[in-house]
Backbone:
Protein backbone atom coordinates (compact mmCIF):
# COMPACT_ATOMS: atom_id res chain seq x y z
CA UNK A 1 0.00 0.00 0.00
CA UNK A 2 1.35 3.45 -0.84
CA UNK A 3 1.84 5.70 2.14
CA UNK A 4 -0.13 8.91 2.09
CA UNK A 5 2.21 11.88 1.87
CA UNK A 6 1.37 15.09 3.71
CA UNK A 7 0.61 17.93 1.30
CA UNK A 8 3.40 20.41 0.65
CA UNK A 9 3.44 23.33 3.03
CA UNK A 10 3.21 26.73 1.35
CA UNK A 11 5.52 29.12 3.18
CA UNK A 12 4.84 32.83 3.46
CA UNK A 13 7.42 34.90 5.32
CA UNK A 14 5.92 37.74 7.37
CA UNK A 15 9.14 39.62 8.09
CA UNK A 16 11.81 40.53 5.54
CA UNK A 17 13.95 43.56 4.85
CA UNK A 18 15.99 44.78 1.93
CA UNK A 19 18.90 45.64 4.22
CA UNK A 20 21.61 43.05 4.79
CA UNK A 21 21.45 41.48 1.32
CA UNK A 22 23.88 41.53 -1.57
CA UNK A 23 23.04 44.38 -3.93
CA UNK A 24 22.68 48.14 -3.95
CA UNK A 25 19.38 49.04 -5.61
CA UNK A 26 15.91 48.04 -4.40
CA UNK A 27 15.51 45.90 -7.52
CA UNK A 28 18.79 44.07 -6.96
CA UNK A 29 18.04 43.53 -3.29
CA UNK A 30 14.59 42.14 -4.03
CA UNK A 31 16.03 39.84 -6.69
CA UNK A 32 18.54 38.49 -4.19
CA UNK A 33 15.87 38.08 -1.52
CA UNK A 34 13.67 36.09 -3.86
CA UNK A 35 16.58 34.04 -5.17
CA UNK A 36 17.39 32.91 -1.64
CA UNK A 37 13.72 32.45 -0.77
CA UNK A 38 13.49 30.14 -3.78
CA UNK A 39 16.28 27.99 -2.37
CA UNK A 40 14.28 27.63 0.82
CA UNK A 41 10.91 26.94 -0.80
CA UNK A 42 9.36 30.21 0.36
CA UNK A 43 6.44 31.26 -1.81
CA UNK A 44 5.98 34.88 -0.71
CA UNK A 45 7.88 37.40 1.34
CA UNK A 46 6.56 40.47 3.14
CA UNK A 47 9.04 43.35 2.99
CA UNK A 48 9.13 46.52 5.04
CA UNK A 49 11.50 49.42 5.68
CA UNK A 50 14.15 50.53 3.26
CA UNK A 51 17.84 51.00 3.83
CA UNK A 52 19.70 51.95 5.87
CA UNK A 53 17.49 51.43 8.92
CA UNK A 54 16.43 54.69 10.58
CA UNK A 55 15.21 54.42 14.17
CA UNK A 56 13.35 57.73 14.35
CA UNK A 57 12.55 58.62 10.75
CA UNK A 58 11.44 62.08 9.64
CA UNK A 59 8.45 62.35 7.30
CA UNK A 60 10.90 62.56 4.40
CA UNK A 61 12.69 59.44 5.62
CA UNK A 62 9.40 57.54 5.80
CA UNK A 63 8.51 58.50 2.27
CA UNK A 64 11.98 57.64 0.97
CA UNK A 65 12.04 54.26 2.73
CA UNK A 66 8.57 53.39 1.49
CA UNK A 67 9.56 54.45 -2.02
CA UNK A 68 12.44 51.99 -1.87
CA UNK A 69 10.05 49.20 -0.96
CA UNK A 70 7.59 50.24 -3.68
CA UNK A 71 10.43 50.10 -6.21
CA UNK A 72 11.42 46.68 -4.95
CA UNK A 73 7.85 45.38 -5.18
CA UNK A 74 7.27 46.60 -8.73
CA UNK A 75 7.06 43.63 -11.05
CA UNK A 76 7.47 41.15 -8.19
CA UNK A 77 3.92 41.31 -6.90
CA UNK A 78 3.55 37.58 -7.48
CA UNK A 79 6.26 36.90 -4.89
CA UNK A 80 6.39 39.86 -2.55
CA UNK A 81 4.09 42.03 -0.47
CA UNK A 82 4.89 45.22 1.40
CA UNK A 83 4.02 46.99 4.63
CA UNK A 84 4.35 50.78 4.91
CA UNK A 85 6.87 52.09 7.44
CA UNK A 86 5.14 54.59 9.75
CA UNK A 87 5.96 56.38 12.98
CA UNK A 88 3.86 57.69 15.87
CA UNK A 89 6.27 60.63 16.08
CA UNK A 90 4.79 61.86 12.79
CA UNK A 91 1.14 60.94 12.83
CA UNK A 92 -0.05 63.10 9.96
CA UNK A 93 2.81 62.05 7.71
CA UNK A 94 2.17 58.43 8.64
CA UNK A 95 -1.50 58.70 7.76
CA UNK A 96 -0.48 60.15 4.41
CA UNK A 97 1.92 57.26 3.88
CA UNK A 98 -0.80 54.76 4.71
CA UNK A 99 -3.10 56.38 2.18
CA UNK A 100 -0.36 56.55 -0.44
CA UNK A 101 1.11 53.10 0.01
CA UNK A 102 -1.81 51.00 1.29
CA UNK A 103 -5.08 52.65 0.25
CA UNK A 104 -3.83 53.84 -3.14
CA UNK A 105 -0.76 51.63 -3.54
CA UNK A 106 0.11 47.95 -3.43
CA UNK A 107 1.04 47.64 0.24
CA UNK A 108 -1.07 45.54 2.59
CA UNK A 109 -0.09 46.59 6.10
CA UNK A 110 2.00 48.84 8.30
CA UNK A 111 5.23 48.48 10.24
CA UNK A 112 5.91 50.33 13.49
CA UNK A 113 9.44 50.14 14.81
CA UNK A 114 11.26 51.88 17.65
CA UNK A 115 10.53 55.61 17.36
CA UNK A 116 8.08 55.57 20.25
CA UNK A 117 6.61 52.94 22.52
CA UNK A 118 3.28 51.68 21.31
CA UNK A 119 1.65 52.02 24.74
CA UNK A 120 1.57 55.75 23.95
CA UNK A 121 -1.93 56.69 22.70
CA UNK A 122 -0.28 58.89 20.10
CA UNK A 123 -0.11 55.78 17.92
CA UNK A 124 -3.89 55.27 18.01
CA UNK A 125 -4.88 57.23 14.87
CA UNK A 126 -2.35 55.19 12.89
CA UNK A 127 -3.77 51.92 14.19
CA UNK A 128 -7.30 53.08 13.47
CA UNK A 129 -6.45 54.05 9.88
CA UNK A 130 -4.68 50.77 9.14
CA UNK A 131 -7.55 48.83 10.69
CA UNK A 132 -10.06 50.72 8.58
CA UNK A 133 -8.22 49.54 5.46
CA UNK A 134 -7.92 46.04 6.96
CA UNK A 135 -4.17 46.25 6.64
CA UNK A 136 -1.94 44.12 8.84
CA UNK A 137 -0.42 45.92 11.82
CA UNK A 138 3.08 44.88 12.76
CA UNK A 139 4.67 46.36 15.88
CA UNK A 140 8.29 45.56 16.70
CA UNK A 141 8.84 44.55 20.34
CA UNK A 142 12.06 43.54 22.07
CA UNK A 143 12.34 43.06 25.78
CA UNK A 144 16.09 42.99 26.41
CA UNK A 145 18.03 41.93 29.44
CA UNK A 146 19.95 45.04 30.37
CA UNK A 147 17.35 47.38 28.93
CA UNK A 148 15.62 48.09 25.65
CA UNK A 149 16.06 51.23 23.56
CA UNK A 150 14.17 54.36 24.72
CA UNK A 151 11.44 54.14 22.06
CA UNK A 152 11.46 50.37 21.81
CA UNK A 153 8.22 48.69 22.76
CA UNK A 154 8.12 45.88 25.26
CA UNK A 155 5.53 43.16 24.80
CA UNK A 156 3.76 44.69 27.78
CA UNK A 157 3.45 47.94 25.79
CA UNK A 158 1.93 46.01 22.95
CA UNK A 159 -0.52 44.36 25.33
CA UNK A 160 -1.63 47.83 26.42
CA UNK A 161 -2.09 48.85 22.78
CA UNK A 162 -4.04 45.67 22.02
CA UNK A 163 -6.35 46.28 24.98
CA UNK A 164 -7.17 49.72 23.59
CA UNK A 165 -8.01 48.16 20.20
CA UNK A 166 -9.60 44.83 21.10
CA UNK A 167 -11.19 44.30 17.69
CA UNK A 168 -8.03 45.00 15.70
CA UNK A 169 -5.56 42.21 14.91
CA UNK A 170 -2.04 43.21 15.91
CA UNK A 171 1.22 41.35 15.39
CA UNK A 172 3.73 41.27 18.23
CA UNK A 173 7.08 41.44 16.42
CA UNK A 174 9.82 39.03 17.53
CA UNK A 175 7.40 37.52 20.09
CA UNK A 176 8.65 40.18 22.43
CA UNK A 177 12.34 39.29 21.99
CA UNK A 178 12.71 37.62 25.34
CA UNK A 179 9.92 35.35 24.25
CA UNK A 180 9.04 33.67 27.51
CA UNK A 181 7.99 37.10 28.79
CA UNK A 182 6.49 38.07 25.46
CA UNK A 183 4.17 35.12 25.15
CA UNK A 184 2.97 35.60 28.71
CA UNK A 185 2.33 39.31 28.12
CA UNK A 186 -0.01 38.75 25.19
CA UNK A 187 -1.57 35.39 25.90
CA UNK A 188 -4.80 36.86 27.30
CA UNK A 189 -5.34 39.01 24.21
CA UNK A 190 -6.93 37.05 21.37
CA UNK A 191 -6.39 39.90 18.89
CA UNK A 192 -2.61 39.52 19.19
CA UNK A 193 -0.53 37.14 17.08
CA UNK A 194 3.20 36.64 17.51
CA UNK A 195 5.93 36.84 14.88
CA UNK A 196 8.64 34.19 15.32
CA UNK A 197 11.31 36.18 13.49
CA UNK A 198 14.62 37.63 14.35
CA UNK A 199 15.93 35.86 17.39
CA UNK A 200 18.31 32.94 17.65
CA UNK A 201 16.74 29.59 16.75
CA UNK A 202 16.29 28.75 20.40
CA UNK A 203 14.55 25.45 20.93
CA UNK A 204 11.20 25.59 22.65
CA UNK A 205 10.03 29.00 21.38
CA UNK A 206 7.51 27.67 18.91
CA UNK A 207 6.32 24.95 21.27
CA UNK A 208 5.65 27.45 24.06
CA UNK A 209 3.90 29.86 21.70
CA UNK A 210 1.61 27.11 20.42
CA UNK A 211 0.97 25.81 23.93
CA UNK A 212 0.02 29.22 25.32
CA UNK A 213 -1.57 30.95 22.32
CA UNK A 214 -2.69 28.19 20.00
CA UNK A 215 -1.18 27.61 16.56
CA UNK A 216 -3.58 30.06 14.94
CA UNK A 217 -1.85 33.00 16.69
CA UNK A 218 1.70 32.09 15.68
CA UNK A 219 3.18 33.39 12.40
CA UNK A 220 6.47 32.50 10.76
CA UNK A 221 8.79 35.33 9.84
CA UNK A 222 12.52 35.37 9.25
CA UNK A 223 13.88 38.93 9.59
CA UNK A 224 16.00 38.24 6.49
CA UNK A 225 18.47 39.58 5.37
CA UNK A 226 19.84 40.27 8.88
CA UNK A 227 18.83 36.75 9.81
CA UNK A 228 18.98 33.67 7.65
CA UNK A 229 15.77 32.14 6.40
CA UNK A 230 17.34 28.88 7.57
CA UNK A 231 17.69 29.52 11.28
CA UNK A 232 14.19 30.94 11.46
CA UNK A 233 12.57 28.12 9.51
CA UNK A 234 14.31 25.73 11.89
CA UNK A 235 12.22 27.10 14.76
CA UNK A 236 9.16 25.65 13.08
CA UNK A 237 10.70 22.63 11.40
CA UNK A 238 12.33 21.36 14.62
CA UNK A 239 9.20 21.84 16.73
CA UNK A 240 6.98 18.86 17.48
CA UNK A 241 3.82 20.00 15.70
CA UNK A 242 1.02 18.44 13.68
CA UNK A 243 1.24 18.97 9.94
CA UNK A 244 -1.82 21.18 10.17
CA UNK A 245 -0.33 23.45 12.84
CA UNK A 246 3.00 23.67 11.03
CA UNK A 247 1.15 24.63 7.87
CA UNK A 248 -0.82 27.33 9.68
CA UNK A 249 2.31 28.82 11.24
CA UNK A 250 4.37 28.75 8.06
CA UNK A 251 1.78 30.47 5.91
CA UNK A 252 -1.86 29.73 6.59
CA UNK A 253 -2.28 32.23 9.41
CA UNK A 254 -0.68 35.05 7.44
CA UNK A 255 -2.76 34.30 4.36
CA UNK A 256 -5.90 34.32 6.50
CA UNK A 257 -4.94 37.63 8.09
CA UNK A 258 -4.20 39.27 4.74
CA UNK A 259 -7.03 37.69 2.78
CA UNK A 260 -9.51 40.60 3.15
CA UNK A 261 -7.09 43.26 1.95
CA UNK A 262 -5.62 41.06 -0.77
CA UNK A 263 -9.09 40.33 -2.07
CA UNK A 264 -10.04 44.00 -1.86
CA UNK A 265 -6.99 44.86 -3.94
CA UNK A 266 -7.63 42.06 -6.40
CA UNK A 267 -4.33 40.36 -5.63
CA UNK A 268 -4.32 36.81 -6.92
CA UNK A 269 -3.42 34.27 -4.26
CA UNK A 270 -4.40 30.82 -3.20
CA UNK A 271 -5.77 30.88 0.36
CA UNK B 1 28.15 15.10 8.98
CA UNK B 2 30.18 15.98 12.07
CA UNK B 3 28.54 18.36 14.51
CA UNK B 4 31.22 19.95 16.71
CA UNK B 5 28.84 21.76 19.04
CA UNK B 6 26.26 19.86 21.06
CA UNK B 7 25.72 19.73 24.81
CA UNK B 8 24.33 17.11 27.15
CA UNK B 9 22.52 17.45 30.49
CA UNK B 10 20.19 20.32 31.28
CA UNK B 11 20.29 23.99 30.29
CA UNK B 12 20.18 25.83 33.64
CA UNK B 13 17.28 28.14 32.83
CA UNK B 14 14.69 26.14 30.92
CA UNK B 15 13.87 22.63 29.82
CA UNK B 16 14.66 22.03 26.16
CA UNK B 17 12.73 19.71 23.84
CA UNK B 18 15.82 17.58 23.12
CA UNK B 19 17.61 17.65 26.47
CA UNK B 20 17.33 13.89 26.81
CA UNK B 21 20.45 12.36 25.20
CA UNK B 22 18.44 9.63 23.48
CA UNK B 23 16.09 12.14 21.88
CA UNK B 24 19.03 14.34 20.90
CA UNK B 25 20.86 11.40 19.36
CA UNK B 26 17.79 10.41 17.35
CA UNK B 27 17.30 13.95 16.09
CA UNK B 28 20.95 14.37 15.11
CA UNK B 29 21.11 11.01 13.37
CA UNK B 30 17.93 11.93 11.53
CA UNK B 31 19.76 14.93 10.12
CA UNK B 32 22.71 12.84 8.99
CA UNK B 33 25.07 13.54 11.87
CA UNK B 34 27.44 10.64 12.41
CA UNK B 35 29.58 12.19 15.16
CA UNK B 36 28.76 14.93 17.66
CA UNK B 37 31.33 16.63 19.86
CA UNK B 38 29.55 17.02 23.17
CA UNK B 39 30.15 19.28 26.11
CA UNK B 40 28.03 19.50 29.23
CA UNK B 41 25.65 22.26 30.25
CA UNK B 42 26.57 21.34 33.83
CA UNK B 43 30.06 22.69 33.23
CA UNK B 44 28.75 26.25 32.93
CA UNK B 45 27.79 26.81 36.54
CA UNK B 46 28.73 23.68 38.52
CA UNK B 47 31.91 24.15 40.52
CA UNK B 48 32.49 20.40 40.50
CA UNK B 49 33.53 20.28 36.85
CA UNK B 50 35.30 16.96 37.46
CA UNK B 51 31.91 15.47 38.35
CA UNK B 52 30.33 17.11 35.29
CA UNK B 53 33.05 15.61 33.09
CA UNK B 54 32.56 12.16 34.61
CA UNK B 55 28.83 12.26 33.91
CA UNK B 56 29.46 13.59 30.40
CA UNK B 57 31.80 10.68 29.64
CA UNK B 58 29.28 8.20 31.01
CA UNK B 59 26.40 9.72 29.02
CA UNK B 60 28.43 9.66 25.82
CA UNK B 61 29.16 5.97 26.38
CA UNK B 62 25.58 5.13 27.29
CA UNK B 63 23.70 6.90 24.52
CA UNK B 64 23.87 7.36 20.79
CA UNK B 65 25.86 4.24 19.84
CA UNK B 66 29.11 6.09 19.41
CA UNK B 67 27.56 9.31 18.14
CA UNK B 68 28.77 11.49 21.01
CA UNK B 69 32.44 12.32 21.58
CA UNK B 70 32.91 13.94 25.00
CA UNK B 71 34.75 17.25 25.27
CA UNK B 72 35.37 17.88 28.94
CA UNK B 73 35.56 21.26 30.55
CA UNK B 74 38.42 22.63 32.64
CA UNK B 75 38.26 25.79 34.73
CA UNK B 76 41.82 27.08 35.23
CA UNK B 77 40.75 29.32 38.10
CA UNK B 78 40.10 26.22 40.22
CA UNK B 79 42.83 24.52 42.26
CA UNK B 80 44.45 21.46 40.75
CA UNK B 81 42.95 22.07 37.30
CA UNK B 82 45.82 20.17 35.70
CA UNK B 83 44.44 16.97 37.15
CA UNK B 84 41.11 17.72 35.47
CA UNK B 85 42.96 17.90 32.14
CA UNK B 86 44.71 14.62 32.96
CA UNK B 87 41.43 12.92 33.81
CA UNK B 88 39.77 14.20 30.64
CA UNK B 89 42.64 12.91 28.56
CA UNK B 90 43.75 9.73 30.31
CA UNK B 91 40.76 8.52 32.29
CA UNK B 92 37.87 9.54 30.05
CA UNK B 93 39.86 9.45 26.81
CA UNK B 94 38.32 12.70 25.66
CA UNK B 95 39.75 13.96 22.37
CA UNK B 96 39.51 17.65 23.29
CA UNK B 97 38.40 20.28 25.77
CA UNK B 98 35.58 22.81 25.78
CA UNK B 99 36.24 25.99 27.73
CA UNK B 100 33.83 28.60 29.05
CA UNK B 101 36.03 31.57 30.04
CA UNK B 102 33.10 33.94 30.44
CA UNK B 103 31.05 31.64 32.68
CA UNK B 104 34.17 30.84 34.73
CA UNK B 105 35.24 34.44 35.05
CA UNK B 106 38.70 34.66 33.49
CA UNK B 107 40.15 36.59 30.57
CA UNK B 108 42.20 35.07 27.78
CA UNK B 109 45.22 37.05 28.93
CA UNK B 110 45.13 35.26 32.30
CA UNK B 111 48.39 33.30 32.85
CA UNK B 112 46.39 30.32 34.10
CA UNK B 113 44.53 30.17 30.79
CA UNK B 114 47.85 30.37 28.94
CA UNK B 115 49.13 27.45 31.02
CA UNK B 116 45.99 25.52 30.18
CA UNK B 117 46.58 26.08 26.46
CA UNK B 118 50.11 24.72 26.88
CA UNK B 119 48.80 21.69 28.72
CA UNK B 120 46.20 20.99 26.01
CA UNK B 121 48.70 21.51 23.20
CA UNK B 122 51.14 19.19 24.92
CA UNK B 123 48.51 16.50 24.93
CA UNK B 124 47.41 17.26 21.35
CA UNK B 125 43.92 18.09 22.58
CA UNK B 126 42.04 20.66 20.48
CA UNK B 127 40.52 23.41 22.58
CA UNK B 128 36.99 24.61 21.93
CA UNK B 129 36.18 28.05 23.30
CA UNK B 130 32.49 28.79 23.66
CA UNK B 131 32.40 32.51 22.88
CA UNK B 132 28.85 32.72 24.16
CA UNK B 133 26.03 30.34 24.93
CA UNK B 134 23.05 32.64 24.52
CA UNK B 135 22.15 36.02 23.05
CA UNK B 136 23.04 38.47 25.83
CA UNK B 137 19.68 40.18 25.28
CA UNK B 138 17.76 37.12 26.45
CA UNK B 139 19.93 36.04 29.38
CA UNK B 140 18.50 35.65 32.84
CA UNK B 141 18.84 39.09 34.47
CA UNK B 142 20.71 37.63 37.43
CA UNK B 143 23.20 35.72 35.26
CA UNK B 144 24.47 38.10 32.63
CA UNK B 145 27.50 36.72 30.82
CA UNK B 146 29.12 38.81 28.08
CA UNK B 147 30.82 37.13 25.10
CA UNK B 148 34.48 36.17 25.49
CA UNK B 149 36.97 38.88 24.47
CA UNK B 150 39.13 37.08 21.94
CA UNK B 151 41.74 39.79 21.39
CA UNK B 152 44.65 37.97 23.14
CA UNK B 153 44.03 34.73 21.27
CA UNK B 154 45.77 35.28 17.89
CA UNK B 155 49.12 35.87 19.58
CA UNK B 156 48.70 32.87 21.85
CA UNK B 157 47.89 30.55 18.97
CA UNK B 158 50.60 32.01 16.76
CA UNK B 159 53.18 31.24 19.45
CA UNK B 160 52.01 27.62 19.92
CA UNK B 161 52.38 25.59 16.74
CA UNK B 162 50.81 22.51 18.31
CA UNK B 163 47.69 24.27 19.55
CA UNK B 164 44.36 23.92 17.71
CA UNK B 165 41.36 26.09 18.61
CA UNK B 166 37.69 25.93 17.61
CA UNK B 167 35.50 28.93 18.41
CA UNK B 168 31.89 28.05 19.13
CA UNK B 169 28.87 30.33 18.83
CA UNK B 170 30.57 33.22 17.11
CA UNK B 171 28.73 35.50 14.66
CA UNK B 172 30.41 36.26 11.32
CA UNK B 173 33.44 38.31 12.34
CA UNK B 174 34.71 41.48 10.65
CA UNK B 175 37.23 40.92 7.87
CA UNK B 176 39.90 42.53 9.99
CA UNK B 177 40.48 42.15 13.70
CA UNK B 178 41.33 39.44 16.23
CA UNK B 179 39.24 36.66 14.72
CA UNK B 180 40.53 37.35 11.21
CA UNK B 181 44.09 37.28 12.60
CA UNK B 182 43.34 34.07 14.43
CA UNK B 183 41.91 32.36 11.36
CA UNK B 184 44.93 33.47 9.36
CA UNK B 185 47.10 31.23 11.56
CA UNK B 186 45.30 28.27 9.91
CA UNK B 187 45.14 26.62 13.30
CA UNK B 188 41.70 27.90 14.26
CA UNK B 189 38.14 27.26 13.13
CA UNK B 190 34.68 28.66 13.73
CA UNK B 191 31.43 26.68 13.97
CA UNK B 192 28.24 27.53 12.11
CA UNK B 193 25.83 27.78 15.05
CA UNK B 194 25.68 31.58 15.22
CA UNK B 195 26.67 32.34 11.63
CA UNK B 196 23.68 34.42 10.66
CA UNK B 197 22.22 36.48 7.83
CA UNK B 198 21.05 35.26 4.46
CA UNK B 199 23.58 32.78 3.03
CA UNK B 200 25.80 33.18 6.09
CA UNK B 201 27.89 30.07 5.46
CA UNK B 202 28.55 31.15 1.89
CA UNK B 203 29.56 34.63 3.01
CA UNK B 204 31.86 33.29 5.74
CA UNK B 205 33.51 30.90 3.27
CA UNK B 206 34.04 33.72 0.80
CA UNK B 207 35.62 35.92 3.45
CA UNK B 208 37.76 33.44 5.38
CA UNK B 209 37.80 30.18 3.42
CA UNK B 210 35.66 27.07 3.72
CA UNK B 211 38.61 25.38 5.42
CA UNK B 212 37.97 27.53 8.53
CA UNK B 213 34.38 26.46 9.16
CA UNK B 214 32.83 23.44 10.87
CA UNK B 215 29.23 22.42 11.38
CA UNK B 216 27.94 23.21 14.85
CA UNK B 217 24.29 23.02 15.78
CA UNK B 218 24.46 24.20 19.40
CA UNK B 219 21.73 21.63 19.99
CA UNK B 220 19.74 21.08 22.06
CA UNK B 221 19.78 24.79 22.96
CA UNK B 222 19.28 25.66 19.29
CA UNK B 223 16.98 23.86 16.88
CA UNK B 224 19.20 21.34 15.07
CA UNK B 225 17.29 21.66 11.79
CA UNK B 226 19.05 24.99 11.28
CA UNK B 227 22.12 23.03 10.15
CA UNK B 228 20.77 21.44 6.95
CA UNK B 229 18.70 24.53 6.23
CA UNK B 230 21.73 26.81 6.43
CA UNK B 231 23.58 24.52 4.05
CA UNK B 232 20.60 24.62 1.69
CA UNK B 233 20.51 28.43 1.76
CA UNK B 234 24.16 28.82 0.79
CA UNK B 235 25.63 28.04 -2.60
CA UNK B 236 28.80 26.03 -2.02
CA UNK B 237 31.08 24.01 -4.25
CA UNK B 238 30.97 20.28 -3.48
CA UNK B 239 34.53 20.48 -2.12
CA UNK B 240 33.72 23.39 0.18
CA UNK B 241 30.57 21.70 1.37
CA UNK B 242 32.42 18.48 2.14
CA UNK B 243 35.06 20.36 4.07
CA UNK B 244 32.51 22.23 6.17
CA UNK B 245 30.24 19.25 6.75
CA UNK B 246 32.92 16.80 7.87
CA UNK B 247 36.37 17.19 6.37
CA UNK B 248 37.66 20.00 8.55
CA UNK B 249 36.45 18.38 11.76
CA UNK B 250 37.63 14.88 10.93
CA UNK B 251 41.01 16.27 9.92
CA UNK B 252 41.37 17.96 13.29
CA UNK B 253 40.86 14.74 15.25
CA UNK B 254 42.39 12.42 12.68
CA UNK B 255 39.31 10.24 12.63
CA UNK B 256 37.25 9.03 9.68
Residues:
Amino acid sequence: MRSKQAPRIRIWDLHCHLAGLAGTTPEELMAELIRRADRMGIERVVVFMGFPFIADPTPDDLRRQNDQVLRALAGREDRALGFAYVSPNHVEASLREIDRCVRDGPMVGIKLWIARRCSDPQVDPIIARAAELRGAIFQHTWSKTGGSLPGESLPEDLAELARRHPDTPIICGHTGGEWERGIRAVRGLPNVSVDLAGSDPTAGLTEMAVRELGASRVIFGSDAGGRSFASQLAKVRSAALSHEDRSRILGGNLRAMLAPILRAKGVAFEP
Amino acid sequence: MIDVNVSLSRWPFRRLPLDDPRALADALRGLGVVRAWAGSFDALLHRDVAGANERLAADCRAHGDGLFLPFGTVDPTLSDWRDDVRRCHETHEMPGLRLHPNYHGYKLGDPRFVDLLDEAAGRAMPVQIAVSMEDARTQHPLVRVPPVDLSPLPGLVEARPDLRVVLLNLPIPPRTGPVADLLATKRAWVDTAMIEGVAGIERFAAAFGADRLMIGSHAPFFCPDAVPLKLQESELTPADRDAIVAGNASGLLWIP
Q: What stands out?
A: The mean pLDDT of chain B is 97. Chain B has one domain: 2-253. Chain B touches chain A at residues 14-18, 27, 134-141, 144, 194, 196-200, 219-226, 229-230, 232-233, 235 (CB under 8 Å).
